[in-house]
Amino acid sequence: MVSKKQVGRKNGKIEFLRFFFCIAVLLFHAQKYIVGSVSFKDGIHLSMFPHGAMGVEFFFLLSGFLMAKSVYKIKSATALNGYEYNEKTLSQNSLTFLKRKYLSVFPQHCVAFVFAFIALALKDNFTLKQGILKLVDSIPNFFLVQMTGVNFSNPNHLEWYISCMLIAMAIIYPLCSKFYYSFTRYVAPLLAMMTLGYMIYTTKSLTGVSVWMGLSYKSMLRAIAEVALGTTAFEFSRYLSSKQYNSSRRLLFTAFEIFCFVATAVYLVTTMPLKYEIYMIVLLFMLVSIAFSGVSYGNGIFDNKFVYFLGSLSLPIYLGQLTAIYTIQAYMTKYSIKIQLVSVVAMTFLVAFIIMFVGNKLSNLLVKKHSVSL
What we know:
disordered N terminus; single chain
């Protein structure tokens, strides 16, 4: 059972997983843009994170989990004080939540956007006119609304994930708030199963960003399904943590948690068929649920400042990798592939530290300005 001491603090296992899956995405893109995309037609063999894009699925699940946690906390406090949700309260809470999420990523996004735009301009040798047109076309990307379909140009096109996440939460948050138990226990898993099944049937995989599926991008459907499934993961984790377990059952949970991680990691670094991405969603769902529930052993190993710091690096690393890739493509193509790959990783970390530092300064200014205006 989760102790009161654990409530409200960071979860070391989750912070480690955030860093791990972010690195998986980084190495996937390094492989894709420096070496070339991996073929899945030559049998199953080891490679450099050919399925690393699945790291985004972890972050969608995590976003849904934390969103449901926020909803549950508000609903519990509201019920405790004898209040009931009404339409006005629901809209206010939804807007407040979205504002908080938007402002939590926007400062670092702004820094990364500027870096990526400059790196892309240097790589493609923009003229002044081309640069101005590119900047105008990038306005939807700057405001993180490009995945609505208003998608003209994306200097930092990996931010599709953030755009999809914000839009998905904007859709799901009021539903989860209004119908919490019905949504998390019934609607969300059904919605996820039908949506993910539809994508597997029609496109033979879950990953993919810019495929248009009629009303939205495939990546938008991924986000809605997996953020919704993340809310179910929270409810399942809450159920697990409400029970008492003896040491043998905790060992079983620990073994299964390790299995979920190892099986996922093996899939990420092999050329197993894309259709098995759906199995990875199930493993990630269980991994997130167990890691948050506290029913397995090993929490003390990960609950430390170093792991927390690695977790905090995940967003800047994600945002900064294209700047590094563009720079290497512009100036280091004469070097060996190995040197280019190492340079991409090293430069990504350097850019990530700058994004984190400058982004935090901007975030503090926004908070201070908001406090003064109040």
